[in-house]
């Protein structure tokens, strides 16, 4: 029987991710952390007032943007508020309260490492390949950066990893009640993380239904009962936010329309609100948007998926980006050559469907957002595609190991990726550290 338990190296990786991100949570100056001001404003407000905001509180409006983060899901702020309260009760003050507000991100990246390794042990043939898949995601410099300050992006990465793992494990366990409950909780967290990962939920929902119908062994009535159970739990754990939003904001359960209303009200009052840059309204064709300025949108989006610190003003050396690119190209090429069109097990087919389609939808949503709503070529909006890349690389390493018996091929990729990212951490992230 396949050994799916975490080995010593994998446990060390999880501990290392936690310690590095916790150190970063203490060391990184908040002036280098995009969006953290608005996120912490919200978590501090919840901590001080002991209740959830309505979303229109003037003190929560981010002045230059004209809206509050309380209009969209903010479970990360709730967790940050709980840790801030806990740290305060324990007598901590000053910078330690900033660390408290960042603990959701520290826990999220650690959870991403845990679920990545657990998932890899389930769907990959070798634990060395599982390590490669996870290292690509959690020791990616931009992911590490997200794990060190308060934001929703890193929570969404962890939530997606958890949902994928729950579906693969649920499929193996023939969707017993425990599997249904675990899936419900992970989907709820995903719903309350960031809208950028809803494409993953769409694809994963399709895979879940297919798996439940085919592998649960239940009759129609049993399948319906499990679907209703999951739906009820998701409504209980996540639906409350959207129902509450709809009741407060005239049916706007997502909060998007309310953001526009808030911005327009402030503009009408004479406030200087940063305008959205909508290429579609500026006479720019879609092709020109993608290809203009030497493919700048594509160029900045790809590079900032790997490393663009601060407010995208701290970049790493170009040759470093190319090592990341070449590693991905090498292992993904092995995946395409030896695995994608070869003979595969059912869960490999499930994973192929999940990572390919979800990755495409995620990139598509980012393109749509930048063209029709606000031009922002930021890699953090598509960073979950590293889950897709990591899995493909892991399968590529699996297949070449099967053919050659050489496990060092997977290990070499993990070590090179880790060492490069450690160099980035010391050379570039350290520029954002406070003076101790």
Can you walk me through this structure?
With 436 residues, the chain is mainly alpha-helical. The protein has one domain (8-432). It contains 17 helices and no strands. The longest helix has 29 residues, at 220-248. The chain is globular. The chain starts with 7 loop residues before the first helix and ends in a 9-residue tail after the last helix. The mean pLDDT is 95.
**Number of domain modules:** 1
Number of strands: 0
Structural class: mainly alpha
How do the SSEs run, as a string of H and E?
A: HHHHHHHHHHHHHHHHH
Query: Strand fraction band?
Result: under 5%
Ends apart, CA distance between termini: 51 Å
Low-confidence stretches: none
Taken from the alpha-carbon principal axes, the silhouette is: globular
Radius of gyration: 22 Å
Helix percent reads: 55-70%
Largest sheet: none
Number of helices: 17
